[in-house]
Amino acid sequence: MKFMLSCQEATRLSSDRLDTPLTPAQRWPLALHLFICRHCRRFDRDLRRLHQCVRNADGGQVFISLPPQRKAAILQRLEQEAQA
Ligand SMILES: [Zn+2]
Hints:
Number of helices: 4
Number of strands: 0
Bound molecules: zinc ion
Number of domains: 1
Mean pLDDT: 86
Strand content: under 5%
């Protein structure tokens, strides 16, 4: 594995590591790429969140944890829609 990854290689490794642990020869170049590339860092973060949601899925429902302020805003909006 080469030391500097392309974004395509980095995103593939980000996805692969959700299923199987990476070797050190894969892990270090990925860590370096994620350190210097904000696009792949964002992709990696979002992919891990999505993976966590799928892992938490139970009976077809997906549980996503939201901050309390966001929950209150959604609830308020639903109540407004119900009264309209
Ligand atoms: Zn990248």
